[in-house]
Write a structure and sequence with these properties.
The complex is a heterodimer of chains A (about 300) and B (about 375). Chain A is an all-alpha fold and about 300 residues long. Chain A has a single domain, classed as ABC transporter involved in vitamin B12 uptake, BtuC. Chain A contains 11 helices and 2 strands, in the order ααααββααααααα. Chain A has a two-stranded antiparallel ribbon. In chain A, helix 1 crosses helix 9 and helix 2 packs across helix 8. With about 375 residues, chain B is of the alpha/beta class. Chain B has 2 domains: about 200 residues, Rossmann fold, CATH 3.40.50.2300; about 150 residues, 3-Layer(aba) Sandwich (Rossmann fold). In chain B, strands 7, 8, 9, 10, 11, 12, 13 and 14 form an 8-stranded mixed beta sheet that branches. In chain B, helix 6 packs parallel to helix 7 and helix 12 packs across helix 13. Classes of the chains: A mainly alpha (about 300), B alpha/beta (about 375). Chains A and B meet through helix 1, strand 2, helix 5, helix 10 and helix 11 of A and helix 2, strand 8, helix 8 and helix 9 of B.
Chain lengths: ~300, ~375
């Protein structure tokens, strides 16, 4: 039993850290620039396609990952300069419409370029098998993902909490006008944050590619979860995004794993079989509703 | 202007009177994108090869195949089907992969009195109480392949089996089919349809320590499941069993060597020894550069079935009663060998055991090991009162 809980905790951690990579960029763009970017999930999808295509061309997963992240960052830069600059001043409805259009454009472009069938991205040969930790086997690749996620989370924390740029970012999230008045180049800061968010998307997409599938529409389902994460964590807060992502990752994994077993012990088998999966999939939304009830601004609101 | 109109009217009248010049139209709605795309693409390619072998004709008449992608979404499938039924007035429909989509689309097709020749989805509903004169399944009833695996697992003496399947009608049919012939202990796990990450389920499997695992996860789901199952190190202690859907060329191509040693069931195999199958397998490889899967064989058979029926009624597809009789008579030679239709329009046929290994050319592929059932019907036929 302890083994099961430990393994599920690792799974939850892995899922949560990947959600964090997506939520970090989203929460900064939303929190600092007050811009709802529905196309964040599309950057994740396009990033994953870049990684898969580059990995196939270079015949190396790691080179592909690096090239893919660079490509997605470049795309993010172009998007920010051409489109998002025009959107910051507009209301949320225009932003939602424009970025929703981006989703459709991204999906169709990917379908045209890479075809409707999912691309196969394989993990490096040396990580394809299991490793033994504390008496049980766990996939080596998932451990690497956890490692990368932890390192990125730590770096982001240092960057946002300890560096000068991070201070500007936090100041921008808390009060944009005041930050501008103090002579900070907010426009350049916005571009940098957006590009950084795009790179994190590609990192998540590339790392998850071998576990899931690189396919059209992969961004939408994960985007909803990323929004849940930043709403739980508090919009604009990196710390909130990390905590929120870990909560959502763990609750989703444990819910899927333990709810059906629990229900089976208490309900007739038929009802448990229908109710279990249904309940597990709405669990995180129940959680979000509960948190919003007690903390309408999220757990760590940036504008306290 | 008036001359042109008259000419047009004359042309239209002419077209109306020469009935035989109308092409036979087939509406093909299938899953051609997303994780289930491999299945739909194989059915389509098999169907197209069938049309090619028939010289682009059905029953000797020119034929037109209209193709649409349902994106594994019942709503999109319904829209595409409505378009084919109302605007294009198709004579046959086929192609749907997933049973939940079939059940969503079925009522509109039957209401329109159009024949649906299912090349895959075989829901229990349409085999039993809701059976319909306009529905035929040229492949199998959903339960059948699972029943065959259940029989094998029972005969091999496994006692503690875990079942993993998506939570949708096809998944429910899989579990009831498997348990109809396997009588030992089971634990069932239902996943979301289209789920790609199985970490939570794999941890449960590790904790439950079953001696065999039966999974039914078609398309990309199965590919990811097997990869993650092997990466988690579970293949050392647990023997994998699956219906042919989760162990055919589409999955083998993506997963490779880790699949070796896996048992599965099918009504067809690419190494079956009959002239029709040899031609089908050879030409499929020539046309598409890969081995066909059972889905491709089903698509191929669907084309042959339409052809034979249209020929039987001499092209008069408007006579629905005669066309139904012709379809029931099954006058084509299937690549799986002999079979016939039961009173509920589902096949009565043999099911075979296959194991994945290396063939003479060193490819990882399926090899037929023996027969599990002979002339096997589905369990729902008694509930069907066919009109």
């Amino acid at each position: 039993m302890t083994q099961l809980v430990l393994e599920q905790a690792l799974n939850g951690l892995q899922f949560g850290l990947m959600l964090f990579l997506l939520a970090a960029g989203l929460t900064l763009v939303f929190g600092i620039m007050d811009c709802i970017n529905l196309a964040h999930g599309s950057l994740y999808m396009v990033g994953a396609y870049f990684v898969a295509a580059a990995a196939q061309a270079a015949d190396s997963f790691w080179i592909g990952l690096g090239a893919g992240i660079a490509g997605a960052a470049l795309l993010g830069l172009l998007l920010e300069l051409s489109l998002f600059r025009q959107l910051y001043r507009r209301d949320h409805l225009s932003q939602v419409l424009a970025t929703f259009a981006l989703i459709l454009i991204a999906n169709e472009s990917v379908r045209v370029i890479w075809g409707p069938a999912p691309l196969m991205l394989n993990p490096p040969e040396s990580l394809a098998g299991p490793v033994e930790i504390a008496g049980f086997f766990y996939p080596a690749y998932r451990l690497v993902i956890i490692g990368v996620g932890l390192v990125v989370a730590a770096l982001l924390y240092l960057l946002v909490a300890k560096s000068r740029v991070g201070m500007w970012v936090r100041a921008g999230a808390a009060n944009r006008e005041m930050t501008e008045a103090l002579g900070i180049n907010v426009r350049g800061l916005f571009t940098a944050v957006f590009v950084f968010g795009a790179a994190l998307c590609a990192l998540a997409g590339g790392l998850l590619g071998p576990l899931l599938a690189v396919q059209v529409g992969m961004g939408e389902s994960v985007l909803i979860l990323a929004f849940v994460v930043i709403i739980i964590g508090g919009i604009g807060s990196i710390r909130g995004a990390l905590v929120g992502a870990l909560i959502v990752g763990t609750v989703d994994t444990l819910g899927r794993a333990l709810l059906p077993t629990l229900l089976r012990a208490t309900l007739p088998a038929d009802a448990a079989a229908t109710l279990g999966p249904a309940l597990a999939s709405i669990l995180i939304y129940l959680l979000m509703a509960a948190i919003l009830f007690f903390k309408p601004q999220g757990l760590f609101p940036a504008r306290a | 202007m008036s001359i042109r109109l008259t000419a047009l009217a004359a042309a239209l009248m002419l077209a109306g009177s020469v009935h035989a010049a109308d092409p036979i139209k087939v509406g093909f709605v299938s899953t051609l994108s997303g994780p289930g795309a491999g299945l739909g693409v194989d059915i389509r390619d098999g169907f197209n090869l069938g049309m090619q072998h028939l010289g682009g004709k059905l029953g000797g008449l020119p034929a037109e195949v209209l193709i649409a992608d349902d994106q594994q979404n019942p709503d999109i499938a319904k829209q595409a089907t409505d378009r084919f039924l109302k605007r294009d007035k198709v004579d046959f429909m086929t192609g749907i992969v997933f049973s939940n989509i079939m059940l969503a689309v079925g009522p509109a097709v039957f209401q329109n009195q159009t024949f649906y020749i299912s090349a895959n989805a075989g829901p229990s509903q349409y085999a039993g109480a809701q059976c319909n004169p306009f529905f035929f399944n040229v492949a199998w009833q959903n339960d059948n392949l699972h029943e065959a695996v259940g029989k094998v697992v029972q005969d091999k003496g496994f006692k503690n089996v875990m079942i993993v399947t998506p939570n949708y009608p096809g998944g429910k049919d899989a579990v009831s089919g498997f348990k109809r012939f396997y009588k030992g202990k089971t634990e069932e796990m239902y996943t979301k349809l289209g789920q790609l990450d199985y970490a939570a389920e794999l941890a449960q499997i590790r904790a439950a320590k079953p001696d065999a695992l039966f999974f039914f996860l078609p398309g990309g789901m199965g590919i990811n499941f097997v990869k993650q199952f092997v990466a988690a190190g579970l293949s050392r202690d647990t023997q994998l069993f699956a219906p042919g859907f989760s162990a055919d060329e589409d999955v083998i191509k993506a997963v490779g060597e880790p699949m070796m040693g896996m048992f599965n069931s099918s009504h067809w195999a690419h190494d079956m020894d009959n002239a029709e199958n040899k031609r089908f397998v050879a030409d499929f490889q020539k046309a598409y550069g890969r081995l066909p899967s059972l889905y491709a064989s089903q698509g191929y058979d669907a084309a042959l079935m339409m052809d034979a029926a249209v020929r039987d009624v001499k092209g008069n597809v408007a006579d629905k009663k005669a066309l139904q009789k012709a379809l029931e008579a099954k006058r084509f030679k299937s690549v799986r060998g002999e079979f016939k239709f039961n009173s509920n329009h589902y096949p009565v046929q043999n099911y075979y055991l296959r194991a994945i290994g290396k063939d003479a050319q060193g490819r990882v592929t399926n090899k037929t090991m023996g027969t599990i059932f002979t002339n096997h019907a589905d369990a729902y036929v008694a509930q069907c009162k066919m009109k």
